[in-house]
Model the fold of this input.
Amino acid sequence: MTTKRFPPTVNNNPELQGDLADLLVEQLEQIGVEYIFGVPGGAIEPLYNAMARSSRKGGLRPIVARHESGAAFMADGYARETGKLGVCCSTTGPGATNLITGVASAFVDNTPMLVITAQTALHLFGKQSLQESSCTAVNTVAMFQSCTRYSSLVSHRGQLEGKLVSAIAATQGPPAGPAHLSIPMDVLAAPRRMRPARSSVRLESVLKRHTLTDPDALAELLFELEQAKRVVLLLGDGCGDAIEEIIEFAELVQAPIITGPAGKRWMNHQHPLYRGVLGFAGHRSARDALVDKRNSLVLAVGTRFSEMIFGGWEEDEELNAKLIHIDDNLEHFSHSSLARLHVCGTLRNIFRTSIDSLKEKRTVGALCLAPLPCSVTDRVGCGGADYPAAQITLNEPAACFSAAFPLKPQRLMRELSQRLPENARVFVDAGNSWAWATHYLHLKSTGLYRVGMGYGAMAWSIGASVGGALGAAGAPTVCMTGDGSFLMSGQEITVAVAEKLPVVFVILNDSVLGMVMHGQRMGGAEEVAFELPPVDYAQVARAMGAHAETIRTVEELAAVDFRDICKREGPTLLDVHIDPEEIPPMASRMKTLGSLH
Done:
């Protein structure tokens, strides 16, 4: 299409030269933004022009995704890896609507993200221009209002800085999440009349974390802890900022620790107090720890009480009587309305205060822990102290050591647990990858296991691993995904090729939509629409410029040098053929679905 090009602004003052897009880029640089992930187009061209000028000076630069949803997933992964603001952009119309799935995923998972979409020029609003997405056409601002913390149109040049501050503040929460700015092309290209640093102080201030805590609820929590005999901790995905204090607290009072499927990222799975995952694809040892009659208190921390943790459970009055919900997100308390106590505030402060109080009052001795039972069979089946820790029980431990053909997915998870570098970032996709990794993948490092379980978007891990690798400065990154997800967004591997990123894509290849097939069989539904054609994914990857290997047997898996491929310049794809008849541990999900019939 032919796009109107705006001439460069003529201005003798170097501080005032450029467009408003240049001002936007400079202010993002002030808060440490390194990349903007997106797909270029006509209406967003002024922003790409500004990024080109910035990158020539060593500033932020664009990362071109192959699809806008992939760009949003990349911004998500980058934010999770670095703790910085993830930023993605698109042109108007279908570019903006293509972003929505990735933005919705970040919204549900509380990932801070700035979303910038273009609009057609203001004077074309309401004239049915190509790809118009104003309030008089396909209203993208209204669409994003349903999946962001803030969504607004910058309707004239004077609004840009103020709305940018508002948007970035909204990304920080609590609750954190994405914010959206829709900026017409002529506003982005307008000559700027403001100094570059005018808003930098305000932008830095809105990124600061607040430390407000409900003092009355905290005092009641301390009283409860002083009276308790035995405490168990249930950790969700929101524990990251306070995990050191939480672990110190658990060790002080000898409290067993269980997590939700997403919360397991914060645990060293070899920790002697860790009992595994509760809920979807979880462990019997975690459930046993939760319902143990000896528990005085159950401290649920940083969790939203989603189906993935409590799916298929009936209302438990005894559990509610022991439950104390600790969170910095007021929204989460609506899902634990019958809990004994709600404590809202900064998790780090709450647990530091609790530790200091218990030590000062010398009441820790009142709390005690008797070891949970773990039979000799469990210990041998779990592979002793190395895989996993002996206190976590597995559904089918023998399958983790099977040399059968086709390759058992349980064996694949065991090999990855033992052979991946300890500093490898692991991104796990929706579908069967979730189930196998949640139950059988056990890592020693904390904070390096990532899932997008809130919204459950297929292909999330493909884009997120690329964004994470860009933020990880050469650290090994592993994307675990299924063949169905790879067929959706596998082209994003070419971004890793272009950026020379050491991402290892592990494809669980069973030629079916595995969760669909097994879900139909387990639920007694018609077996339909789950087949996938046989595809040589290794050959596809090589055609796109990546290294690739095909793995069908235990011997071929054993021959893979994971430490070597994690150091390669550029990505490697492992096309791992697994046994499609192995039933993933998804019973809790099926129980939830069954209750709907």
